[in-house]
Amino acid sequence: MSDTLVPTTDFSPAKSHLSDVMTQVFHGHQPQLVSRHRGKEQMLLMRPDDLVAMLADQHLEVLVVYDGDEVTLRVPEMGVLGFGGTLDEATEDLLVELRAYAARFFRDAARFMATSRATHAGALLRFALSTEEAQRRMLSEVRETEPVAALAAAG
Q1: CATH number (domain holding residue 95)
Q2: How far apart are CA 136 and CA 124, in angstroms?
Q3: For the chain, which terminus, N or C, has the lower number of CB atoms within 10 Å?
Q4: Is residue 73 part of a domain?
Q5: CA distances from 80 to 3, 86, 96, 116 (A)
Q6: Distance (Å, rounded) from C-alpha 149 to C-alpha 139?
Q7: Distance CA 42, CA 117 (A)
Q8: Shared-domain flag, residues 80 and 19
Q9: Are residues 92 and 122 in the same domain?
Q10: 90 and 42: one domain?
Q11: Do 29 and 67 sit in the same domain of this protein?
């Protein structure tokens, strides 16, 4: 099937009419494919909030471990950890670490997308484009308790 189901504009006309394209994308909530080199290269333009809504099923698996007076939150798939004396402190630390990881991921996306870490893209993009409050909610969407012995065995 050569016809795309998403509105597509060639690069030169899109560049010449960028204001109109942005109006369609932003005010019309209409994603736009921009294409060049006879369709060999394409990019998708869309509102970030629309993309976040479309990525709503992308989650971060966050495990919590209570060990004495220390709390550890971890996202095992990404190898990201947050530490604190309380759940709130560990959450704040994990938010800092996830933001740093997301910034590294998208700054060097070609390298990450060529590895098994490419599977992190959807959840990280949802996280990166979300408000601070929505990022916090992502950390509590699916939270499980992991026994301390399991963390020690995994580490």
Answers
A1: 3.30.160.620
A2: 13
A3: N
A4: yes
A5: 41, 18, 10, 15
A6: 23
A7: 23
A8: no
A9: yes
A10: no
A11: no
Q: Say how far apart CA 121 and CA 55 lie, in whole Å.
A: 10
CATH number of the domain enclosing 33: 3.40.1620.10
Strand 32-36 and strand 8-10: the pairing is: parallel
Give me the amino acid identity at 132.
E
Single out the residue of 93, 100, 86 nearest to residue 139, CA to CA: 93
Query: What's the pLDDT at 115?
Result: 96
Predicted local confidence at residue 125, as pLDDT: 96
150 residue type, one letter:
A
**Containing domain of residue 28, as a range?**
8-46
Domain count, the chain: 2
Question: Mean pLDDT by 10-residue block, N- to C-terminus, for the chain (155 residues)?
Answer: 79 94 94 91 94 94 93 95 96 97 97 96 96 93 51 48
| Identity of the residue numbered 122 | G
SS3 per residue for the chain = CCCCCCCEEEHHHHHHCHHHHHHHHHHCCCCEEEEECCCCEEEEECCHHHHHHHCCCCCCCEEEEEECCEEEEEECCCCEEEEECCHHHHHHHHHHHHHHHHHHHHHCHHHHHCCHHHHHHHHHHHHHHCCHHHHHHHHHCCEEECCHHHHHHHC
